[in-house]
Amino acid sequence: MPRVDTKVVIVGGGAAGMTAAISLAKRGISVVVLEGGVYPGAENWSGAVYFCENLARPEVLGEDGLLQMPVERRVIQRGLLVSDGQVAVGGSVRSRAAFEHCYTVLRPVFDHDLAQKARLHGAEVLTGTTALALIRDGQSVLGVLTDRGPIYGDVVFLAEGDAANLVGREGFETKEPEEDGLARPEFLQGIKEVLTLPPGEIERRFDVGEGQGACLEILLRNGTMGGCEAPLNAGAFLYTNRESISLGLVAPLENLKEVGVPHNRLMEWLKGMPALEGLLEGARSVSFGAKLIRGGGWKEMPRLAMDGCAVGGAASGIGVDFPCPNYTGPATFMGWAFAEAVAELVADNEACTQEALEEHYVSRVKASQYLDDVHSLRDWPAFVSESREFFGAQVDAVTSVADAATSGGAARQLVAIRSLCDATFERRDALVRDLRRGGSALGLWAGARADLVSAIPWWIINCLIGWFPRRGREEARFVPHFMHAGDRPRRPMPVSWRYARWVMAPGMAEALFHLYRNDGVRLSHKMRLMRRAVLFRLSLFDFILLPMIFVLARLVGLLTRRSPVDRRTALDVVAEATDQDAKLAWITYRSDARTHIRFHAAHDENGLSDDSSSSLFHICPAHVYQGEHDGGGSTVVSVLHENCIRCESCWRADDRHVDWGRTRGQRLVFESYTSADAWLRESREGAGLAAASRGTRTPDDAADLIDRVALEEAVRDAVIDGLGRVGGHAQSFCALMGHLPSVLSGADQTLLEALGLEVLRGVQEVAQSLSSHESEGLSSRARALTEWAQLASPHLRSRRFFHFEADLELLRVHHLEDLRLRTGLGLPESSAAPDDAADSRRVALRAFLEQRLHRDVIAASEAALAPTAEARQTLLEVAAALREEGTTAPALPGSAGRDAAIEEVARLSPPLAIVLAGHLAA
Ligand SMILES: Cc1cc2nc3c(=O)[nH]c(=O)nc-3n(C[C@H](O)[C@H](O)[C@H](O)COP(=O)(O)OP(=O)(O)OC[C@H]3O[C@@H](n4cnc5c(N)ncnc54)[C@H](O)[C@@H]3O)c2cc1C
Ligand code: SF4
After folding, report:
1. What is the helix, strand, coil percentage profile of the chain, to 5?
2. 592-664 domain in CATH 3.40.50.2000?
3. Structural domain boundaries in the chain
4. For the purposes of burial, counting CB atoms within 10 Å of the CB of 688, is it exposed (0-12), middle (13-18) or buried (19 or more)?
5. For a substitution probing ligand 1, which of 52, 160, 309 has the most ligand atoms within 8 Å of its CB?
6. Can you tell me the distance from the alpha carbon of 307 to that of 139, in angstroms, rounded to the nearest whole number?
7. What pLDDT is stored for residue 683 in this prediction?
8. Which atom of ligand 2 is nearest to the CA of 641?
């Protein structure tokens, strides 16, 4: 299909989308950005340390432009700690050189400002506009279907962020599908709060100057639930803003499902940790939210290009979670790379085919440091979600030793060191395995042998000159962290520890400098530099002294017979100072009366609902799903869709129970908690959409594309007839979707599915009629319709009804419109949509029953009902009575006829009516 204009359509006004938009608009290439939020950033809930090196490129904002952005603080310190809750220990590096272009930002403010810059350069940013599907002709993407109409463009950039709805629905995923045919990528869930502090407190507590920021990542020791180890494997982050702190947790979604700790309790646990007391004392929570992060890394990267479409940003899974979290760097890079690619193709007058995008865009991404980093960490996601030692015994060992070094007397120190020995000796197999796996997943062991050999001369030299300070980098300073409850008495650090710090600090400073440096050095090389920074500063003494301390402690520990401290926290007894409902009230909602969530109630063979085991009841951070036992063995589920904070975890956690639609009008705003009013910053809400989409496909404008085909009468009749039915069923489907409640019974699901199947059948019949006509134009239409059905059918079969609803809209606004333009056919109008829910149900059913009843539909309905032999017999009797009596049906009290009887039954149960109608037709 020929294209109508040269516009670039970008889905998502986040880091990747806006970088691309600014860069394209600056070159005079017309670009439309579709942003579902009320304004760009309104729903963006990341940390965040924003890595701005790509924004600083001259093609985007430039260094001067970047300086005008509303950042919170410039990062000058970053570090890594481990914590058991009582104590947090670790180190950070302070350096201006390492953190080039790293800023803390509040995303609602920063993203909005970035969008304003894009607008100033001429990009069209349509807010409150959700992309529902790609408009395609076969494998070629022609544009985007939005909830406000279709938009056509030469190329589409999918930069929709982590949840990657469209990447999934449009078949970009490369992960192997499971038994039911669906691919399920791995995700992490991020939960975050913002806490304000009085002016000057950030500077005092973090020892930073005005405008300078510190960021800490903390590996958290797993706690217990019901006395058992809770394998959460969570990391925390703490970033300083101007007058607030962003504090959050990130854990694999699968682990959160398994453990089932309520989100609020997790946050309250984190906030209440004695180890963080000194930093958080008096801080006031003002904002709360959660979001998904794609976690599968390299192994689950989707396809990045197809004809007319490229994928970028977090939707591509390119980002680093550990050891130096960075997602915005790769996202902005991909935005920039996409714009470069399009500019080159436009300059060469070349189409944005898959090959062209592979060559100009994907190859750039592949050659980048960001992809190399993701590749070198390809085994890390699996290690994080499975490791128990890394979030358990190893944390115990480090924190107990650190704790002992700074508090208590000699006995306590020995007990602590003994627990380290215990951890080392008694769990040595697990530890060695974990260290080996973890280290190789981080790329620490690659080339380690050669480094060890080359370090030996240094160990001898350092042994000889060991009393001289082991010098480090001028521009990097190591800051050790021993954080603990403020009221615990602390001893001055023993001389041995001070000596160790003196010996190790320069090496640690250099190692951390390499880890965090944001100057394009690849992670694989950073790991090598880090290793050498530490190894080359050791001396032979260190190898003798360290084991001696271990042996001594073990001996004394055995003699004293004191058991090691249990450092786990019981998560089930954490007190929640602020309850979750109060936190949810901080978010501004714009709800739609219609639901954007469908809970699919399941039933076992006895007719009892089988939903109690669903992880939804605890995976949702907004209490949207509520399940109660009804006393009869069933779970009664209610869905409070208005509470949804759009983290998109539920349908990723349990897509068998839940269908979640970006399609509905529910919107929200994470308040930006600055003096600027979020609503004032909202502007031009989708005003340009009509202009952008109109003019692309009106019959007049597109006259040169129309090759009107004279249709033979038989084909014409078959097509009109088929399309009439397709339209009726599609309309019934959409009417039902609008009116059904959030919890869909098995009967409702069957009815929707049956209506959808009828649409698919009808489309296939129309496609067949068209292909029987000898016209190239019509065969291509027939092909397009068949391909549409092939894409839509899995959505229906997996009961992703929101996706299917979008498919129907795509059929209506694109495929049928195209057919009308090509054939000049006046396509049949479907009957008007019903007014209320009861009507829509009946009209839908009548429309359905008026058509042929296919056996498999009846069978499906019967299977959903699973009637007993007795019920089936009654049904047959009712059908027989109705048949005998013709159109009057005295057998059914209150019924005036066969149709009315079916309608009555439909009120009770749509599938029952289908089965009854099937018996009548038999
Ligand atoms: C708790 C948390 C902490 C994080 N901390 C950091 C950090 O400190 N540093 C860092 O680098 N990264 C961090 N990240 C990750 C980072 O936020 C993202 O990876 C990054 O924003 C990705 O940029 P993007 O442009 O791909 O997507 P986003 O910035 O997420 O932008 C996507 C945009 O698309 C819109 N959208 C989505 N679907 C549609 C649709 N169908 N139609 C229209 N609009 C749509 C969304 O509303 C959103 O505005 C964090 C994430 C979380 C959850
Ligand atoms: S309903 Fe789903 S998307 Fe909404 S807050 Fe709950 S888990 Fe997140």
Report:
1. 45, 15, 35
2. no
3. 1-70+105-182+295-378+675-697, 72-101+187-290+390-426+443-591, 592-664, 706-851, 865-922
4. middle
5. 160
6. 7
7. 43
8. 1
Q: Which ligand is nearest to the CA of 621?
A: 2
Work out the percent of the chain whose per-residue pLDDT is above 90.
Answer: 43
- Cα–Cα distance, 413 to 706 (Å, whole number): 85
By C-alpha distance, which of 722, 757, 733, 734 is closest to 858?
757
Distance CA 282, CA 268 (A): 14
User: What distance in angstroms lies between residue 840's CA and the mean position of ligand 1's atoms?
Assistant: 38
Alpha-carbon distance values, 432 to 421, 426, 825 (Å) = 14, 11, 73
User: Ligand 1 atom 8: the closest Cα is on which residue?
Assistant: 48
Give the pLDDT score at 685.
Answer: 43
pLDDT tens-digit map of 542-584: 777 767 766 766 676 666 655 556 678 888 888 888 888 899 8
**CB–CB of 246/192 below 8 Å?**
yes
For 209-242, write each residue's pLDDT tens digit. Answer: 999 999 999 999 999 988 888 999 999 999 999 9
| Ligand 1: residue whose CA is nearest its atom 37 | 160
Place of tokens 């309520």: 262
Please determine, for residue 633, whether its predicted confidence score (pLDDT) is greater than 70. Answer: no
What's the CA gap between 242 and 704, in Å, rounded?
Answer: 57
Query: Checking phi first, is residue 164 left (phi over 0); if not, alpha (psi -120 to 50) or beta?
Result: left
Nearest of 508, 500, 440 to residue 472 by alpha carbon: 508
Least Cα distance to 54 among 97, 106, 107, 16 occurs for 16
Please provide residue 478's backbone torsions phi and psi, each rounded to the nearest 5 degrees.
Answer: -85, 130
Distance CA 210, CA 678 (A): 25
Cα 406 from chain centre:
41
Distance 647 CA to ligand 2 centre (A): 5
DSSP β-ladder status, 667-669 and 743-744: unpaired
Cα 628 to ligand 2 centre (Å): 19
Which among 189, 624, 742 is the best mutation to test ligand 2's pocket, defined by most ligand atoms within 8 Å of the CB? Answer: 624
Average pLDDT over residues 869-898: 62
- What ligand has the least distance to the C-alpha of 518? 1
Q: What is the phi/psi pair of residue 659, to 5°?
A: -120, 125
The lowest-confidence range among 51-60, 84-93, 145-154, 773-782 is: 773-782
Give the binding-site residues of ligand 1, using a 6 Å CB cut-off. Answer: 11-17, 34-37, 40, 43-49, 51, 130-131, 159-162, 165-166, 190, 192, 248, 291, 293, 313-315, 319, 325-328, 331, 662
Q: How far is the CA of 314 from the centre of ligand 1 (A)?
A: 7
Token pair of 638 as six digits: 């209610």
Q: Find out whether the peptide bond into 323 is cis, omega within 30 degrees of 0.
A: yes
CATH topology classification for 1-70+105-182+295-378+675-697: FAD/NAD(P)-binding domain (3.50.50)
Q: Closest residue (by CA) to atom 6 of ligand 2?
A: 620
833-841 LR contacts (CB < 8 Å, sep 24+): 833/731, 833/734, 833/735, 834/735, 836/739, 837/739, 837/740, 838/907, 840/732, 840/735, 840/736, 840/738, 840/739, 841/736, 841/739, 841/740, 841/906, 841/907, 841/910
Question: How much distance in Å is there from the Cα of 188 to the middle of ligand 1?
Answer: 13
Q: Contact, 372 vs 524, CB < 8 A? A: yes
Gap between the Cα atoms of 269 and 252, Å rounded: 18
Q: ω into residue 48 within 30 of 0, thus cis?
A: yes
Beta strand 102-104 with 73-83 is antiparallel
Q: What's the gap in Å between 247 CA and the centre of ligand 2?
A: 20
Residue 82 identity (one-letter amino acid): V
Nearest CA to ligand 2 atom 2: 650
Q: Which residue has the tokens 């030299």?
A: 461
Structure tokens at 348: 């060469």
